[in-house]
Amino acid sequence: MNTLKSQNLTDTVKQYMQNKEREIVDLACKLISAQTENPPGNEILAVPVVKDFFRSLNIPYKTFEKVKDRTNILGYIGQGSPTLLVACHLDVVPAGDDWKRNPFEAWIENGRIYGRGSSDNKGQMAAMMAVARFLKENESKLKGQLILAGVADEERGSSLGLEYLLSECGVTADYAIIPDVAHNMNMIDVTEKGALFLEIISHGKQAHGSRPEGGINAIWNMITLLERIKQLKFRCTTHPLHTPPTLNLGSIHSGTAPNIVPALCKAQLDIRYLPEDSSENVLNDINTIMKEVEAREPAARFDIRIISNQLPSCVPINNPLVAVISKHTQSILGIQPQPKGMSGATVTKQLIQKGITAVGFGPGDESEAHATNESICIQELVDFAKIMALISFDLLS
Predict the structure, then answer these.
(1) Which residue in 154, 163, 189, 277 is the catalytic one?
(2) How far is CA 369 from CA 120, 155, 189, 308, in A?
């Protein structure tokens, strides 16, 4: 596109999406009203909102279920290549307590949509549906294809969602953008730490609490071990795009009564390590610590179990998606989002592992996801729709 045509398109998209604000809000509210807390998921409750929208515009779509009612829906605009996949998730975390209103009856206040999933990730899906409308109305100008996906199970690992779609359903793309990183469109997620979740088990011997010498207290031994693990030295501690690696003690479970020596104690750890490190290094170092504690405390005995091991991921910061996202964010918001690393995990990991160039980019405040009274700025959703329409048209036309 020459400069004049590009500017004309930008102006057209700005006006178009501003006029679609009411539609974006209405779609977001309908999606929020579908109670898709994961567990159990039941994404099938949100799918009719997307399906009816696709049908109204004659957008071809497919649904996929690995497990009944854990539905994924994909709509297709355009044909040919390249293909751009934008995946938003239809599941949400449990609502929790202390909401001002019903978390599944969205409300508008001070220019924001409130409700569970407004920021993570149903608001983004609503904005992308407006983008789908724009591209469908201009489909004859496209040489490539947009795949808009409303996926299941993102909040619990994606084994029934994007991972299933990529591994078992033949879904693929040249590029993918995952609008699930918040940061108010100020960052582009190009690399993510590895996420290693572990359960450590301390074995003891049950006895009467008045005669603890007759037993082996699994909790005391666990405390000794955890104090050592707390001092774990990561082999790689710096990265130009990441904060340092982290170790979090997430839960401890043990004991039944104060007058019983506990025979079992379980602790769960969340370890985020840098791309240049490896889960093997972390596991080897923790196993070494366990053996050292067992050698010093002959009654101590530990086991370790991997709950989840999501590998680090990264794409080059000079990939085409970074350039096109930066270009159109600048034209709409007057800012250039910066390539950065994420400590949290998104489904870009699964996409990159399949050879798809994938980044994270999207609206929303970092503090809103999973929070009580979750909300997102309406104008931010509209601006996101403007940017994504320009990105899609740029890549696919």
Answers:
(1) 154
(2) 5, 11, 16, 22
